[in-house]
Amino acid sequence: MNIKIPEYLLKMPTYLPNDIEGMIFTYPNKFPLIKKRYEEVAKKYAMDPAGFREYGDSQKAELVVALDNLKKEYEEHKDKDLEYMVRMDQRLNKLFCFRFWIVNYLFADGPIHSFYVDNLKLLIRKLVKADETEKYEAKVEEIIQTLLQSDYADEYLQQALDCNTALNELKSIKEIESNLNKVTRLIDEDPMKNVNDINNIWKEVWEVIQNNEVIGKKLRHAIYQVKFRSSMLPLYNILTHTIEFRKENLQLQEKYDNMHLKIEEIFNKAKKELSADEYDLLKMSYEQAKNFAMYKDVMGAVDGKLIPFWFGIHDEIRDILKKSNPNMPIKSVGQAGMFYYLVWYLPTDLKSIVMTPDFTDFSLENL
Amino acid sequence: MEKEYIDITPHRSIMCKISQTGYSVQEAISELIDNSIDARLENEKLTIKVTINKEHIIIEDTGKGMNKSQAKDSIRLGYSSKKEKLGEFGLGLKTATSFLGEEFVLKTKQKDLSEEYIIKYDENEWLEKGDWFKFPFIIEEKNDKTHGTIVKVNKIKIDLTDELLRKIKEELGRRFAPFILNDEIYLYFNGEKCEVPKPDIIEGTKKEIDIKIGKCEIKGWWAYQLAGYNKSYYGFNTFRRGRLVTVFDKIGLTNNQEIKQIIGELEISGVDITHDKKGWVKTSEEYKQVEEKLMEYFKEYEYKPKRLLTGYPASKGKVIGTVRQVNMFHAGNMEQEIKKVNKGDIIVTAMTRPQYLIAIRRAGGIITDLGGTLCHAAIVSREFGIPAVVGTNIATSVLQDGQKVIIDGGEGVVYEY
Ligand SMILES: Nc1ncnc2c1ncn2[C@@H]1O[C@H](COP(=O)(O)OP(=O)(O)OP(=O)(O)O)[C@@H](O)[C@H]1O
Ligand SMILES: [Mg+2]
């Protein structure tokens, strides 16, 4: 194989497109070793899809264990004072930085991923043949979309696909038949205008189906949101979605089922029409683009546990600080919120905890 | 001074040479369909069946057919007795058939005549020993009430690919749209009905147009469309007596048409067309008048919408919709936020979250502040086929709730409507 990734793409990036929390500005300052750690793995896995997946799995495993430990410790800790909370936030940041950020941001949104996506697009433009611009561009676009979507279903798509099974299950429950017909009519008529009536029916339906295993499994994301938000709306919404987009969801399923055949076809064609080096690069580009996107999702699965815990600590800290800083604006912040929001209101000694670089490496034991 | 009289009967090869006018297959077949349409009976819907395969091309109609003298004249070059019809030059049958194949057979019958007339033309035979004064004409007895004409072309000269066949079918639907839409003809292509392609126009922008100038008249409609991949696919289908003359004709338009493009159908009368019927005689006074008039008319409608934002092109497609600012942060009031989004609205948000799936699926487009081509908003919009522009940095602060915008997800640009 003759693929060459330019050296500079394996360096720590200075900008990330999805970086709403500005971590790229904070983490390399707070945890200087991260640069070295990232550059090591970037070099190692940039062209090793299987290796990257293994690495991703190991990162997730440690993340989960460490998170459980911290959470347990936090819950059991008596007399949580401000300092303890701030230190806990910093430990969470360190964990997040070394065991989440690399896979989820530096790879997934970083220069290596862009390199592969760019190459994938270029090679597809070479592969496609059509005599009219309109058709050519449409074909190029279709193939690129197919390859970038890959045969992996992310959380959004998976939710939509799960709705097909959920709907079949709903239809098989005799007690809710008339309600289901009624709600279908209301949704087909106008899901926005009829939303109150629709939700009232779902309320009744839920009474019957709440212990149904299939439904529980297929609508788990929404059910989790119900707990997290203490509102039934996420559930009602997904139920409405199940009906409102039933036709489209079936089409999505079909498209998804045919995905790997389609991808196989593209690669068969590429094998015939591209040079061996180009083919290898296309294959690698596809594999890695898929890997990076997929592991973003895999890692994202800990959000459910991580976010309420971490953001809960932020809320507590904010409430305490607010008392001594009545002018403090109330903001909702994300993971790195300590660095760009809370820190401004901390007492001086705690400020220095946050703003002092941590030169130590990450390990489960020393976290 | 001496004066002689010489023989100027054309050389036999003229029969083949006239077909070298640069026809496309669609155009040649259209000539033959034109003839069928010209022969339609009043009060009776005409059926035209076009059959094309590697062996032959057949155009069969249920028109009035020809009487004996018409049939005899049909093979003559340059003779036409038609007035106010699609045909006028007396060439089409000959040029089209000899473009398509080496041989053709024409059979025609009128309802109340008990004979059928047959003309056979074989290029090679003609070139070898054809006689301008002795062309064979066959009369066969046929005692029934059938009527119509069938032209069968054999020994096909062109290469027929599946792609070409598809194109021909599509174009026939477009060319003869007025007749199909007026319910005047049934047009079949290899057993399937030719459909009239629907133009993809922006809702509510269609306008009628009816302009008279001198002895010319321009009648029809125009509307805006959103530009496709091929940015030159705009302009008018122009018609003369209901028959398509040009497609994507830019008459009266400037090329200042990047996003919102003008399309339409114009029936133009009073302007001559070229002998190959592929275009208008642009040098004629009438054409110039019409062009000038249209220029004047369209001037105020041609403009390029203003660019509001740019970002990463995340999911291709162009849509127009109403901006809905949706806050998908954890702290947002999900209930309120989801309620805002009506079918087809453009979601404007810092970033997307899976819990907002239902709103996302109702959306006609998505614009985000954050993210690159690989962010969730980009992936999800591709999955569900929703045009999206991501990573604009400022969409949530620049775009107003309720504002109408155009998204170009393939280029990553948001335009003012
Ligand atoms: N399908 C048909 N049904 C009845 N008459 C036909 C048919 N096809 C041809 N003809 C007769 O043959 C004549 C010659 O046809 P041809 O297409 O060569 O000339 P045209 O239609 O008169 O003029 P143009 O060159 O503009 O097409 C026509 O004028 C018409 O009388
Ligand atoms: Mg004709």
Description:
The complex is a heterodimer of chains A (367) and B (417). By secondary structure, chain A is mainly alpha-helical. In chain A, 74% of the residues lie in helices and 0% in strands. Chain A has helices at residues 23-30, 33-45, 49-76, 82-107, 111-127, 133-149, 155-172, 177-189, 195-209, 213-218, 220-229, 233-244, 246-273, 276-300, 303-324, 337-340, 348-355. In chain A, helix 3 (49-76) runs antiparallel to helix 4 and helix 7 (155-172) packs across helix 13. Chain A is flat. The two termini of chain A are 41 Å apart. Chain B has 3 domains: 14-193, 2-Layer Sandwich (Heat Shock Protein 90); 207-299, Ribosomal Protein S5, domain 2; 307-416, 3-Layer(bba) Sandwich (Glucose Oxidase, domain 1). Chain B has helices at 14-17, 25-38, 68-74, 92-100, 123-129, 162-175, 177-181, 285-298, 334-340, 357-362, 376-384, 395-398; strands spanning 46-52, 56-61, 101-109, 115-122, 138-141, 148-156, 185-189, 192-193, 207-213, 216-226, 235-240, 243-249, 260-269, 307-310, 312-315, 318-325, 346-349, 365-368, 388-390, 404-408, 413-416. An 8-stranded mixed β-sheet of chain B has the order 5-4-3-6-2-1-7-8. In chain B, strand 11 (235-240) and strand 12 (243-249) form a beta hairpin. In chain B, helix 2 (25-38) packs antiparallel against helix 4 (92-100). The model of chain B has no long low-confidence stretch (mean pLDDT 91). Classes of the chains: A mainly alpha (367), B alpha+beta (417). The A-B interface holds A 17-20, 108-109, 113-114, 117, 132-134, 136-138, 141, 145, 148-149, 154-157, 159-160, 192, 195, 221-222, 225, 229, 231, 233-234, 237-238, 240-241, 244-245, 248, 252, 289, 292-293, 307, 311, 332 and B 228-230, 233, 312, 315-316, 329-331, 334-335, 338-339, 342-343, 350-351, 354-355, 357-358, 360-361, 370-376, 379-380, 382-384, 391, 410.
